[in-house]
Amino acid sequence: MVMKHDPSTTAPTGLSAKFAEPVADYLEYLQHERGRSENTLRAYDVDLRNLGQFLKDRAQDPGLKQISVEMLRDWLALLHESQISRTTLARRISAVKNFFAWALKHDLVDTDPALRLAAPKKERRLPHVLQPSQIDRLLSSEPSDLSATAAQAEPPSGDSETSAEAKVETKPDDAKARAVKSRDKVIAELLYASGLRISELVALNVADIDFERRTLKVLGKGNKERMVPFGKPAERVMIDWIRSHRRVLAVEQAEDALLVGVRGSRLNVRQAREVIATALRSLGDTSASGPHALRHTVATHLLDGGADLRAVQEFLGHASLATTQLYTHVSVERLRQSYRQAHPRA
Length: 346
Fold this sequence. Notes:
The protein has two domains: about 5-105, DNA polymerase, domain 1 (Orthogonal Bundle); about 130-340, Intergrase catalytic core (hpI Integrase, Chain A, Orthogonal Bundle). Helices cover about 60% and strands about 5% of the residues. The protein contains 15 helices and three strands. The model is unreliable at about 1-10 and about 145-160 (pLDDT under 50).
């Protein structure tokens, strides 16, 4: 059975209930039955809303059963004209195909109009990878060095918590400022040590850490749990943070969160991302700009060091081995560059 909703509360603004209502049902299905993340749900909402607006404006606002493949192709033509990226186009087509496949399964349509829609092949750009020397500089910095630049960074507008973080940095002798610096060291060290997604990192609880085995219990995409190892340097900075500094920031609302903000609640993704972006900018010799660069880097370094591809897949929490194989291309490309630079007959 498909869940029914009050269209006044679920229908996206500007869209008719006859399209918005099944979309709301579908998003609930993705959330509660498939365990999709908030980011995934937001992307599906944006993509399906885009189609719904097109149908309302250009196709006389048909009901779900009246939507034809011709209408969808007209929508695609408009997307092509808008010159959106190939990645965004592929994502929107995928969202629409998945939505109509679900609608057919639940008898909301008689046939699937999106069945024959062809998605463009995604551009597989090789991810940017930091050199070992850059990682050494990033992680060997004292906590005060890692966070010093963050004090000068302009916080994202509208994020009062991030603004508070920046203000704390201006008082280097304050216990709260020292706690922030210790926490930021954990963020950088743990992202490289364990290759976590930034959302996985901020979701960690203290109880998820097994210091005896040096492993983390990580809840990844699709609510899939995995055990991820970490090394002695990460162990040292986490112990220092938990024993000496976490209590300075944490309040009751933080519960068991490993990483907390200056107002005492769990650190959010935006704040953690800004810590890493600032630290990477401070290196001065890399175009890497966010936490995913550290995930790319640890994967490539593991493969360069001879790690098994399947083991790296499990380490990163990739559902498909093909995703992990991208990093083998990075390793090969790095080898080719070294060969061209060093071999006399390259």
